[in-house]
Here is the input.
Amino acid sequence: MNDEDIFDILDGIASEETIRKHHKMLTESAEYQILFSEYVDTHTLLTNTALEKTAINFTDKLIDKWALSQKVITVKQSSKLPIYFLIGMSIMVILLVISILPIINQTTIQLDLSKPLDILQNKLFTHFFLIINVLVALFFIDRQFLKPYFGSRMKI
Here is the structure.
């Protein structure tokens, strides 16, 4: 018999099989009789002891203010902007090399850079890179200035 079974017997919620085992062990074992009497003493002590309430100071000072004492730990993430810049520049270099390769004639070493330079002077190409630069600048301004400013105002 384990502790829970004995306390179930003392509480009066034990099953019939547990009660039969209990009566059998009471008649056969002196050790179990001593153990059971100790459990009876403990059970009566627990049932006669009044439950105590926590002190008002404890609930006021500790439990109610527990949520206020928890600090939020923010982890600053590193900027991925340099990685995106390097990826973009490497793509541009690869595209430039791919556009130059057909121009280079295998028999002559003379380079004709007029076509790649024409691509760079194209208005659509210029507008595309201008828009990309504006978006990167706005992203940087948002991360460095606007989020900290409005984040500090929201905490107030």
